[in-house]
Protein: Lipoprotein signal peptidase
Amino acid sequence: MVIVGCDQLLKYWITTNLALQQVQTLIPNLFSLTYLRNDGAAWSILQGKQLFFMLLTPIVILVLGYLLYKARRQHRIYALGLTFMIAGALGNFIDRLRLGYVVDMFQLDFINFPIFNLADSALTVGVILVFVYLIFFADEKG
Structure:
């Protein structure tokens, strides 16, 4: 819940302190905050498909929650990865329910990379941790 809370607080701060598409440079040529509204998924794919996300996300969260429940005897990296994935999905789902879009804000100025948010980062870290578990540790507990 800490990740979800921080994600929502940061999104609230962005929406109340920056105008839409406003850029606030934090570290020149490296990192900026840019307020964007995303009604798609990562990299703005499936733009405008809100009903799809509203139906799919609760199912994904429930499946991940079930896997997390079953993971209590698995490696901690696996459980942590699932937890991060749930937090990321929930953070963006709250935006979709509340606003009809997802608030994005982190811009990496040194590469051409889509603007993202804390929930996206949590999802990414979670997926990486689950892959690390599957590649290096799954056979230990299996």
Notes: The first helix runs from residue 2 to 17. The chain has a mean pLDDT of 92. The first strand starts at residue 23 and ends at 27.
